Each structure stands twice: as structure tokens, then as C-alpha cells.
Hints:
Blueprint: H1 29-39, E1 45-48, H2 55-62, E2 66-69, H3 74-84, H4 93-97, H5 113-128, H6 133-144, H7 148-160
Parallel strand pairs: 1-2
Residues 25-27, 48, 50-56, 70-73 line the site of S-adenosylmethionine.
Amino acid sequence: MLYCDLGDVWAIGREYKKGRTKNKNELPVELLKKMILYSSDEGDLVCDFFLGSFSTAKVARSLGRYSIGFEINETAYKHQVDHITSIQRGWMLAGLRSNGGNPHFNQRKRWTKEEMCSVIERYHNIKHTGVTDRQAYNILSQEFGRGYFSMMNIIKRKQGSL
Ligand SMILES: C[S@@+](CC[C@H](N)C(=O)[O-])C[C@H]1O[C@@H](n2cnc3c(N)ncnc32)[C@H](O)[C@@H]1O
């Protein structure tokens, strides 16, 4: 199931953290989650040689993995070690099992005319809020449980037929 949305390109946006200090090196949780799920099993050991803000280690722990790694900045290391131990190991797993671990829960299902109409209608509503096409496809992908490129194809096909 986990490999259903494996493609050549993953379109995952940076996280927007309102009012919080931004770390431009920090990877989005969704990306780390996908990479860890695809490359390891629960109980495995994930190594990050440059721990930084421990994002990889934190997601690994949240997915029931163990983590090991290195960080040259002692202050940052101490701060993050305190934080990571407060994360309950495996807490993210329950949410994954409820849809088989695949965020694109409708991916292999046949499209119905009604669903296509809903996607197109939703696309126009989203676009009215001023988002880019890329952002709109990401939102549609999450809401309709299908891949980013499926959403783009439906919209482009509709635009081509106008
Ligand atoms: C971009 S961050 C890594 C982000 C991290 N992989 C994550 O998931 O959040 C790079 C980190 O590597 C650390 N670093 C650089 N050289 C290092 C070295 N020789 N040994 C250990 N850590 C090092 C830096 O202090 C910095 O915090």
C-alpha cells in the first residue's frame, strides 16, 4: 500500500510556521515521513549524520523507529535531545493504519463524473482565494486522496476542452 503514490517527483511544500522562527534547512514532516516509511520498517534504526533540529530523528521516533546520529553544535544537541525524548515513540502509526498508510487513499479507484465535477468546482473555489495552481493541486490532492498529477491532469483537460 505504501508504494501506491511512489512517483518520480514529489510535490511537497515547505511548512508555514506562523510566528515561529524559520529554519530554511528544515525539511517538511510530510517528506521525512514518506522517506522513512519507504525505506525502513517499524523498530528499525534510522541514522542522520547531521541531526540539526532533529527533524528526521523526531519523525523516525514518531513512526516507531529508533534513531542515532551526530550534531557538532553541543547546545543545539542538548536542547533537541531533551525535546525528542518527550515524543511518544510510534504515535504517528495509528493515523497511518487507518488509511493503509497511503495519503492518496483514492488513487486506484475509478474516477466518477461526479468526482471530476467536484474537483473542478473545488479548484475554482480554491483559485478564488488567490493561491497558485501548484498550491491548488496540492490542496486538491489532499482533499480528494489522489496524486498531485491526477489533479493537474483533470484541471488541464477541462481547461483544454473549454
Ligand atoms: C541542515 S542541518 C541537518 C538537518 C537534519 N538532517 C534534520 O533532519 O533536521 C545540518 C547540521 O549538521 C551539523 N554539522 C555540520 N558539520 C557537522 C559535523 N562534522 N558533525 C556533526 N554535525 C555537523 C550542523 O551543526 C547542522 O546543525
